[in-house]
Amino acid sequence: MLKFEFKNPTKIRFGKGQIENLAKEIPAKSKIMMLYGGGSIKKNGIYEQIKNALKDFEVIEFGGIPANPEYEILMQALEIIKKENINYLLAVGGGSVIDGTKFLSAAALYSGDNPWDILKKNIRIDKGMPFGTVLTLPATGSEMNSGAVITRAETQEKFGMGGPGLFPEFSILDPQVVRSIPQRQLANGITDAYTHVLEQYMTFPTQAFLQDRFAESILQTLVEIAPRILKDPSDYEAASNFMWCCTMALNGLIQKGVPNDWATHMIGHELTALFGIDHARTLSIIGPNLYNYKFEDKKEKLAQYAERVWNIKDGSIDEKAHEAIKKTEDFFHSLGIKTKLSEYTNDYEGTAEIISNRFTERGWLGLGERRNIKPSDVEEIVKMSY
Ligand code: NZQ
Ligand code: ZN
Fold it and tell me: What pTM was computed for the model?
C-alpha cells in the first residue's frame, strides 16, 4: 500500500426530510447566495423546501448555472457576491452547480488580478468562502470532495481546480430528489460514478486489499441498482444506494494508498469542451478503449475485476481481462449510453490530433497511473473511440 494522508471535513446529512435541517448547518446572520441551475428545482419542489428552511436568513438567489458550469456566467455571480457582501454560499444542484459554487468560493477570496488564473494555472486553494450543498443529482461526488471542473465556452476549454479549502462544510443528501431526474441524467450519474471507481482501481495491483474491496463493492452495488433506478427513480431504497455509491466513489477514501489513473477523465473533458457531450458519456467513449490500448499495463486488475465484479471465473488472465472490458461496455449500453464518438457527432475527424496537440501545449506529457500515456498515445486512444 502506498503512503497517504486523508482528511475529509464535509458533514453529510443523509435521508428523507434532511433539507428541513438546512438552517442548523449555516451560521446565524449569514448573508447567503443560493446558487442553482436551469430551473429543475422549481418544478420538483426542492426550491420551496429550501426557501422554507432559510426563511430566517437574508438570501440572494443566483439561478441559471448551466450543465458544465460556464466561467462567464460565474463571473456575473462573483460580481454580485462582492457587491452584496455575501459571506456564505449554498449550492442547490448537481455537479455543475456545486462545481460553479466551488469556483466562486475560491474566486471570492482570491487576491490575484484574474480569477481565470485559478483554472489556467491550477492554483491550489487553501481557503475559500464557506459553502454547503443540497445535492439534487447523484453522479460526480462533488458534494463531498474538494475538486471542481469549469468550462469556458469562448475558448472551448474545460479545466479542473481544487484544494483543501474547497470541501463543502456540509452536504444534504435526500434520496427523494432522485424521483424527478430524467433517464438521461440517471444513466449519466451511474456511468460517472462507475468510472470514478475504475479510475482509482483499474491500475496495477499494490496489495491494497481493503481499497480494492471498497472499489469492487461500489461497482457491484451500482450494477445491482442500475436497472431498478432506471425502471423507477422513486424506488427510495434503490435511490439511497445510488446516491451513497456516487458520493463514496469520489470522496477521496478509495483513492488513498493506491495508484490513480484519471486519463479517461482528462481526455473526456476535452470531448465535452469540443462537442458539449455530457461528461459521463465522454467517459464511456474513452474508458473501454483506454483499457484496450493499455491492456498489458492493466490486465491483472482487469482480470481481478472480471472475477470479483462480473463473476467470470474461467479462462486465462488475458481472456478474463478482455471479457471484463466487454462487460463494462455492455453495462454502459444497458443504461442506454452510446460508446462511440461518431454516435454523438459527425464532425469527429481530426479530434484525436486536436486533443493530443492541446496536451502537448499544456505539458501534459505523461498521464495515467504509470505516467506513460503520452500525447501520441492519447491520439491513438481517441482514434480508437471514433
Ligand atoms: O439545471 P437544472 O435545471 O437544475 O437541471 C439539471 C441539469 O440539466 C438536471 N437536474 C439536476 N438535478 C435534477 C435535475 N433534473 C431533475 N431533477 C433533479 N433532481 O440535470 C442536468 C445535469 O446536471 P449537472 O449538474 O450538469 O450534472 P452532473 O451532476 O452530472 O455534473 C456534471 C459536471 O460535473 C463535473 C463534470 O465535468 C460536469 O461539468 N464533474 C465534477 C467532478 C467533481 N467536482 O468532483 C468530478 C466529475 O468527474 C466531473 O468532471
Ligand atoms: Zn466524472
Answer: 0.98
